[in-house]
Amino acid sequence: MKKYLYAVCCLCLWAACQRTESQQKIDVDLDETEAEIAYSGFAESVEYVTLSLTDSLPVGGVERLYFDGGRIFVEDSGNGGILIFDGETGRLLRRMEARGEGPEEIRLNGAFCLNTYERQLCVFDKGDMKVKTYDYDGNFLSATPTEHFFLDMAWTDQERMTCFYPIYAGREQPEGVWSAHMSGSGVKQIDSHVTEDCRFHYFPVMYSRADDRIYYYDRNWDELSVLTADSLRPLYSFHIRQALPLAVKGRRDLSPQDLDGRAIVHHFACSEHFILMSFHTFHQSDMSRKDFTWMLLDRRTGRTTVSKSLKNDLTDAGDGTETHSLFCKDSRTWVRVDDSADDAIRLEIVHLR
Question: What is the number of domains present in the chain?
């Protein structure tokens, strides 16, 4: 029995060491800034696409953005609705409103993703705890009850959906990252790196998808990993000088004083050679202040560049897009969004080197 326990302890220690040693550690100081991060340092060209809001209804903001099958899918951060656009013309094809009451409608959008294997929209409706699927034209297909709550989701193969809930739940439900068969055949825990201190909610995107590769950012530990249907492989561990300490994240009632001067990853996108992140810094004097800083990591050299300015120096529209949201279209393309107009959404398509 003692030998068995010793073997188990050694195995656990080995696994913990493997997790640590397989990661590259990156130091980030958001106060050590350069004048700008220029597009020419990581991109080769830029183009612009305009999505027309022909129904004269503005959006509150772009929460999610996906591309597939000649369509562009936008989640409205204002009301959780989903807009479907023609990928070539930018014409609005359909607006799927949230806060509906019918069984085929979206009551309260909790998460939204694409199942590119089946060419379906998937919505976690936390209003009635069901995962609802629609075709790419927005027509209802099915609704599957789920007993577990989650904050985000992604399809990792044809049969399994991966769910994200990196918040301490006190054993009331799965935590961390897990996969679930939509047939209802059970849950498989992928990563449960969640402790009682993991209580801080910050809702922007948790993963970035580049073709078949999914990058997951754990804001509890500031770790970036590659996700598959069965595993989470750590890539980088970021030591951010201004990060909110985990012990502070565990407080039940965080105050503006606790958050003052602290920063957290807002959006991120990954490619073979580069990782780009935006960080949101909190200020006690004005908690609504949008103070963002960019960080570019060259994965080939390990060099980081930090700046308040992300400048488009590749086109005549050198002012670029004044936004700190960032999305990934595919492994060679990132997208920034200007959603400030009432009648259109402007996409800045950045083709990477």
Answer: 1
